[in-house]
Give the backbone structure.
Amino acid sequence: MKKIYFVRHGETYFNRLNRMQGWSDTPLTALGKTTAVNFGKKLIETAPNISKNIYCSDTGRASKTAAKIIEGLKNQNSRTFKIIPSKNLREQFYGSYEGVLKTKVYQDLGYQNLAKLLDALTPDQFQDQLAQKDPLGLAETSAQFWQRFLLGIEQIIELENQPVVVICHSAILLTLMARFGPATESIVEPANLSLTTVDFENVYHPQILTYNKIL
């Protein structure tokens, strides 16, 4: 089993302000920092045999979350952990919609809120609509996202023999769940510092083991 523990980063200011945040970046709030440390203290109980390498996207919010989780891990474990950032693990790029209020983006596409949007569209379809409507043509398509993201996962799996922690983003987890999760399970936005466990024995057909688990 090629197990990856995906962790959504801690709360940021754009999270609190309900704004689109893909490749754009804002700092962790005080709550985001403290919950990341507390998450790290609990993580070792759920994932005792994780690799010493903690992978994350190259955004500040992901790397800072990784550092705070390691701070919590050190309180429970004497091992030394290393942060390895990767641009391939970034959230989807929203182009001209970066920093825009989420409700405005959803309404511009004809949906009252995220729940209504997810009832009608898959996350991939949502991303493709943004890419199509982006007046500057900057937003990436779902195909572009999957190409780079799966490359990042393949690189991790080639290097690691133990279960791995990856700090990433809500849209990535939503997209994974929508494409590979059980059809009977409703798709909701994962909470900050929630845990999603995925078996990547087959990189192109992974198995979702847990989703949006709060430790």
The radius of gyration is 17 Å. The CA atoms of residues 39 and 69 lie 6 Å apart. The helical segments are 13-17, 30-46, 60-76, 102-108, 114-120, 123-133, 142-159, 170-180. Residues 142-159 form the longest helix (18 residues).
